[in-house]
Amino acid sequence: MNQFKTRTEKYNYIRTQQKEKRIKAAKRTVPLLGTAMILSPGVLAMNTVKANAAETSQTQNQSAFIEQLGASAMQVSSSNDLYASIMVAQALVETGFGSSQLSSAPYYNLFGVKEYNGGPSVTMSTQEYLDGQWVTMNEPFAVYSSYSESFQAHANLLTGSYYAGARKSHTNSYQDAAVYLTGRYATDPSYASKLISLIQSYNLTRFDTPGAGTAVQSTEQSQQAETTQSTQQAVQTASSSQASGQSYTVQSGDSIWGIAEKFGISVDQLLADNGWSSDSTIMPGDTIVI
């Protein structure tokens, strides 16, 4: 045991011991920090790889879903004077690229068809716009055994006299059919541009089969249509952004009600700001005014 003649001597000794302990502790910390710095780039790289893998997987799933829809739509459309490309595009809009539970097995309901006549059904909650507000309700939705059966039920609807203008024999192109369905099948004023954009982006015309009244567009006409559409969309987006100062890009799984809640605004305000009606639809990638 150390002997100290004065309190000052004892105090200085304690201070020296404490200082030495701090130095030793610092030396032990440096290698650990160095290791952390060496590992950090690896961790970041691993996270990047995981993110890229997730994105690739999502793209592959979407592609597989589109191919599956296309095969079923071709079988149904060829015997019903309809465009398979239009039917597939409608299914993508309705299901959010297959993200809805109703569109998945074992329900296979691609178009949100309800069942009130005693057929196979499943009860699910849904958002209905009633009396100026969104209300959550439990409704019976039709259950199908396959996508082909769901497409056939949809074809039965489209071949009625009310939708006659969407058939191949009454149109020159799928664009004509998309325009005709706007205001009839869906009141969303941008419904036609959404369908046409999907058809062009994913080359859905490869599912169309030759039929009466089908005209083959030239490459020049097709490019001109795409350019016109892109210009119109750019103008609409710019106008919306200038009017509100804020825009939002719709993500997979979004709903009009959910977006309104996310930004703390009423559904009525969101509908009015975007010129929508209660029947309007949104899809991933849309730019909307908040």
Low-confidence stretches: 29-39, 211-224, 237-245
Instruction: Report the portion of residues in β strands.
Output: 5-15%
The chain-level mean pLDDT equals: 77
Total number of beta strands: 4
End-to-end separation in angstroms reads: 76 Å
The shape, in one word, is elongated
Count of structural domains: 1
Q: Which structural class is indicated by helix and strand composition?
A: mainly alpha
Instruction: Sketch the major β-sheet.
Output: 2 strands, antiparallel
Radius of gyration: 30 Å
Give the spatial strand order of the biggest sheet.
Answer: 1-2
Q: What is the name of the CATH topology?
A: Lysozyme
Order of helices and strands: HHEEHHHHEHHE
Total of DSSP H or I helical runs spanning 4+ residues = 8
Considering DSSP H and I runs of 4 or more, what fraction of the residues is helical? Answer: 40-55%
Quickly give the CATH architecture.
Orthogonal Bundle
The top-level CATH class is Mainly Alpha
